[in-house]
Amino acid sequence: MRTLKKQGFKLPYLGKEIFIKLTRMGLDYEQGIFLIRDLNNIENIRDFLSEILNEKTVFTQICLICRKDFLCTECKHYSECPTKDLPLPCICEKCSQKNNLYEQYLKLDK
Amino acid sequence: MDNLMWVEKYRPKTVAEVIGNEDAKASFTNWLIKKRREKAVLLYGPAGIGKSTLVYAAAHDFKYNVVEMNASDIRTRKAIMKMAAPAVSLSSLDEFSFETKGNLLLLDEVDGIFGQQDRGGVGAIVKIIQNSRIPIILTANNIEIQKLRPLKKICHLIRFRRVRIPLIVAFLRRICQAENIPAEKEALEILAQNSLGDVRSAINDLQTFCESRKILRKDDVQFIPLRNRGFNIYDTLKGMFSANSSVEAMKILNNSLIDYDTLLLSIHDNLPLHYKNPEKLAIAYEALSKADVFRGRIQNEEWRLLKYVFEFLSQSTTIAPGEFQPFNFIFPPTKRYLLMRTSAERTLLKTICTRIGAKCHVSQKTANSEYLPFLKIIFRKKSDQASQLAKWLRLDNSSINYLKKTN
Ligand SMILES: Nc1ncnc2c1ncn2[C@@H]1O[C@H](COP(=O)(O)OP(=O)(O)OP(=O)(O)O)[C@@H](O)[C@H]1O
Ligand SMILES: [Mg+2]
Ligand SMILES: [Zn+2]
Questions:
Q1: Same structural domain for residues B241 and B261?
Q2: B136-140 and B102-107 beta bridge pairing
Q3: Domain that includes residue B392, residue range
Q4: How does pLDDT run across B111-163, given as a tens digit for each residue?
Q5: Averaged over B83-96, what is the pLDDT?
Q6: What is the mean pLDDT of chain B?
Q7: Which sequence spans correspond to the domains of chain A?
Q8: How far apart are CA B64 and CA B101, in angstroms?
């Protein structure tokens, strides 16, 4: 399994055609790093990458509260989650325990 | 007035309170407050995740006045022009006001407006967008329909997704705190998981289960049917009849998309095709009739009885484990016509749902599936709240009676 960071990631050289396709799908490229420009089709990008890299490809999650990276497979809601492995903000297991989580969420500068 | 439905009572007032979809929210508010490259934005995604709510919350935060048109207002070019044209041009007057930044036009559920027949509506909206000086916001569940193509071309598209489960848990917990109902963490987690990220359903489920409870426990919510996913009727029947034990059949049942009334009738129809042996058939019908008895009692909102319904339904299909021979299932249920509504009733229902839709900013379909069940409970149980609600929704006597009497 290959994990890609939401903040930006590197890929092996895949050829010009695939590069163009990726930028059309919603990725940008700056100084060797791919950045997500458009999230609307991100699952297509993930699936396309899994296919061409021939390896299951997932995005890391960032906890809105503590800002740490984590993986969806660590989450107890994994099988129910409708957006699993996509680079969308979430809450890590540890922060989920907080009783005043909702209040903390409201205070965030998202 | 105290809005009785929790989806209304706890509807976010500000952008910060809308949970989830952080990127989409930021993209939307950026579009709204900065110099807009596109004149209109199209917010799209599944139902019940806060698209319409966000528009009102943003209007509140950034001091816009929302002029809303939805599916029940408009279908034809003429109707759209009549409503939207003044709103769009009035902006120049409002610009000088300190109170508000001016108007914002919300076209809610555009896929619903143009779903079936489009009488020039899409073209009219394209024109309005092109000439508009005010922000125009469209929402839709499904943007893959042909009719919307011209709109997609000129709108800034922002996709909304189902909300992530830990956030829904946090939100449900905060509602329970506000309502003074202690809730077990697992109970809230089950409800949130079951909603599959649909916040509206999660809140509605929570309210259903909290009704008449002082504390919410895990055991209370364990047997709710899963929403939005799972087995269709064929898979459900096949799975249940071929299961090797009632526990196995129960698992299928727990993951079925089919409501248990339909299932009860369908199992009833299909039992004789499954059991050739009359004695086994008799035992199966016996179990089924028990399921039916408990189903009847649930009409008094005793949801804990649901697990008995499930248990007996699962028993009825697994009297003779291992003897399953494939057969052609009978569906839809032969008895359905007895339960079908009369056309007068349907008209009444439509009126009520339109009223709900207008007041709560939801589609008729949503009004029917998500709001109506609560109204019925309130109308049967809490007459003072019911009369307030009736007034608010401007319901006539026949509608009120309908809500009081039907299950
Ligand atoms: N993200 C959210 N945060 C908080 N509450 C929400 C959220 N999404 C939905 N709700 C609750 O559900 C109710 C319905 O939400 P809303 O009408 O905004 O959904 P929608 O996405 O517009 O759905 P539809 O596609 O059916 O119009 C709101 O009144 C609110 O109580
Ligand atoms: Mg809506
Ligand atoms: Zn965290």
A1: yes
A2: parallel
A3: 343-405
A4: 766 655 566 778 888 888 988 888 999 999 888 888 888 999 999 999 999 99
A5: 57
A6: 83
A7: 2-59, 62-107
A8: 5
pLDDT at B228 over 60: no
| B333 secondary structure, DSSP code | -
- For chain B, the domain total comes to 4
Interface A-B, measured as beta-carbon pairs within 8 A, has a size of: 67
**Test the A interface: residue of B25, B155, B165 with most A CBs within 10 Å:** B165
Question: Do B88 and B214 have their domain in common?
Answer: no
Q: Do A91 and B164 touch (CB under 8 A)?
A: yes
- Taking CA atoms only, the protein residue closest to ligand 1 atom 4 is B18
Q: Are residues B51 and B136 both part of a single domain?
A: yes
Does ligand 1 lie within 6 Å of residue B47's CB atom? yes
Average pLDDT over residues A6-30: 94
Higher pLDDT, B310 or B327: B310
User: Cα dist. B69→A18, B25, B142, B366 in Å?
Assistant: 43, 22, 18, 17
CATH of the domain at B214: 1.10.8.60
Examine residue B350 and state whether it is found in any structural domain, yes or no: yes
Give domain status of residue B119, yes or no.
yes
Torsion angle, CA of B355/B359/B362/B365, rounded to 10 degrees? -10
The confidence score (pLDDT) of residue B340 equals 43
Question: Which of these three, B333, B357, B382, is where a domain ends?
Answer: B333
- Give me the pLDDT at residue B94, please: 45
**Does B190 lie in the same domain as B100?**
no
Residues A45-102: tens digit of each pLDDT: 999 999 999 999 999 999 999 999 999 999 999 988 989 999 999 999 999 999 899 9
Q: What angle do CA B373, B117, B132 make, to 5 degrees?
A: 95
Residue A59 distance to chain B (closest CA, Å): 15
Pick the last residue of a domain from B333, B354, B389. Answer: B333
Report the separation in Å between the CA atom of B397 and the middle of ligand 1, taken as the mean of its atom positions.
30
Looking up residue B51, the CATH number of its domain turns out to be 3.40.50.300
Whether residue B289 is found in the same domain as residue B358: no
pTM value is 0.68
Do the beta carbons of residue B282 and residue B316 sit within 8 Å? no
More confident residue, B290 or B25: B25
Ligand 1 geometric centre to CA of B34 (Å): 25
How confident is residue B358, by pLDDT bands cut at 50, 70 and 90? Answer: confident
* Best to test chain B binding among A42, A74, A81 (most B CBs inside 10 Å): A81
Token pair 């990631």 in the structure block, residue:
A9
Q: Is B82 left (phi over 0), alpha (psi -120 to 50) or beta?
A: alpha
- Say yes or no: B77 and B217 in one domain: no
Judgement on whether residues B155 and B169 belong to the same structural domain of the protein: no
From CA B240, how far away is CA B305, in angstroms rounded?
20
- Based on the fold, state whether residues B117 and B12 are members of the same structural domain: yes
